[in-house]
Amino acid sequence: MGMEIERKYLLVGDEWRRLGEGTLYRQGYLNSLKERVVRTRTMGKKAVITIKGIAEGVTRLEFEYDIPFDDCEQLLELCEQPIIEKTRYKIEFGGLLWEVDEFHGVNEGLVVAECELESEDQLVKKPSWVGEEVTGDPRYLNSNLIANPYTSWVSGSNL
Q1: What is the pLDDT of residues 69-95, one digit of tens each?
Q2: Short-list 72, 71, 22, CA closest to 42
Q3: pLDDT of residue 159
Q4: Can you tell me the distance from the alpha carbon of 8 to that of 99, in angstroms, rounded to the nearest whole number?
Q5: What CATH number has the domain spanning 3-154?
Q6: Which residues are catalytic?
Q7: Judging by beta carbons within 10 Å of its beta carbon (0-12, 13-18, 19+), is residue 27 exposed, middle or buried?
Q8: What does the alpha-carbon distance between residue 25 and residue 140 come to, in Å, rounded to a whole number?
Q9: Residue 81 and residue 46: Cα distance in Å, rounded?
Q10: Rounded to whole angstroms, what are the CA distances from 46 to 27, 42, 65, 83, 100?
Q11: pLDDT score recorded for residue 120
């Protein structure tokens, strides 16, 4: 059984930019209900489909499988709109792999960092460029950024 234990944070400054190279991600949701999210994603030249269960704390079921890239491209056309586009940077710090997502399109301006943990109570040593934790804030879930894009928060229309 696949489990995901993850924490999400906002960033402070842009020091993180010099620490890793980014890969373009395009992802869409065939189902974005919090009880069962079904996502398809391209990551550079790789493609996957992912099924996630409802989060209990910072833990939830997660199953991910490689799929043919061309199939993923076609599935993205079937997904809820808009497609999430972001550049992901992978940075190692404090014994953890930090994934920094810089969003584009309707979520332009949003940058978050995530780290996956072995257990919910694992100590997280944060880099200086990691700020406020937003793990429990549903606005920052990628699946919620479709209906409530970040650009609408900063314009004040969906606060």
Answers
A1: 999 999 999 999 999 999 999 999 999
A2: 72
A3: 46
A4: 9
A5: 2.40.320.10
A6: 29
A7: buried
A8: 17
A9: 21
A10: 12, 6, 11, 17, 18
A11: 87
**Could you identify the residue written with the tokens 């059984």?**
1
At 122, which amino acid appears?
Q
Give 8's strand partners. Answer: 114
Q: What is the pTM of this model?
A: 0.89
What single string gives the DSSP state of each residue in 100-156?
A: EEEE-GGGTT-EEEEEE-SSTT------TTEEEE-TT-GGGSGGGTTTS-HHHHHTT
Q: Is the pLDDT of residue 7 over 60?
A: yes
Q: In the chain, what are the domain boundaries?
A: 3-154
37: nearest Cα among 62, 56, 3, 67: 62
Residue type, 155: S
Cis bond before residue 68 (omega within 30° of 0):
no
Q: Which two tokens stand for residue 145?
A: 């950024």
Question: If you search the block for the tokens 């900063």, which residue do you land on?
Answer: 154
